[in-house]
Amino acid sequence: MVRLLGGVLERLLEEGTVHFEGISGTSAGSMNAVVLAYGLLCDGAEGGRQHLHDFWKAISDAGQKMGMGQRMPWEEFLGLDPEYSPTYQFFSNITRFLSPYQFNAMDVNPLRDVLVDRVDFDRLQQCQHTKLFISATNVRSGKVRVFHTGEVTADAVLASACLPQLFKAVTIDGESY
After folding, report:
1. For residues 102-128, average pLDDT
2. Which residues contact 95 (CB under 8 A, 6 or more apart)?
3. Exposed e or buried b per residue across 47-61, where buried means at least 16 C-beta atoms within 10 angstroms of its C-beta
């Protein structure tokens, strides 16, 4: 089982005495919040644990397939630290000089695929058990927008978790986040 937040979240779910009335999150925390809330909605505490585990396993698998900074077989054979491998350095440098609008012009985002495969956002928006609060930063104003349960979509999560060096801003209601 993937150890989440040093095991704290997992332990709270195992304990069974904690009721999650509301969950807030930003960045990777928004993914945890949405997947946990959906898991709780579908299958209770054990479902929350299992959905989180399955989600992060799917993210890991997608990273293995899509990761452009992966080590080449010869780098692994030589025992090069991934941070110092030529492949990683090339990828790291290219993202410093090209914006995602140039580098990722097709807006490929494997996170979107994993999110929509694992979370039924229409069902989640109707959730009465756990309130969700997902934060994202408005590009134009620099102000935070909090998306509440009924507004939480895959786009809201992607906006919250957006890495501006790799992905384009996400447009919601005519505003970029």
Report:
1. 86
2. 103, 165, 166
3. bbbebbbebbebbee
Instruction: State how far the alpha carbon of 46 is from the alpha carbons of 50, 90, 115, 156, in Å.
Output: 6, 42, 19, 26
Residues 7-46 have pLDDT tens digits of 677 788 888 788 889 999 999 899 999 999 999 999 998 8
Paired strand residues for 136 = 145
Handedness of CA 91, 94, 96, 99 (dihedral sign): negative
For the chain, give the mean pLDDT. Answer: 84
Where on the phi/psi map is residue 169: left (φ > 0), alpha (ψ -120 to 50), or beta? beta
Q: Is the pLDDT of residue 124 over 70?
A: yes
Question: Which residues is 148 bridged to in the sheet?
Answer: 133
**15: its two tokens:** 């304990």
Q: Nearest CA to 111 among 31, 42, 165?
A: 31
Predicted local confidence at residue 102, as pLDDT: 66
Q: What is the rounded CA–CA span in Å between residue 175 and residue 177?
A: 7
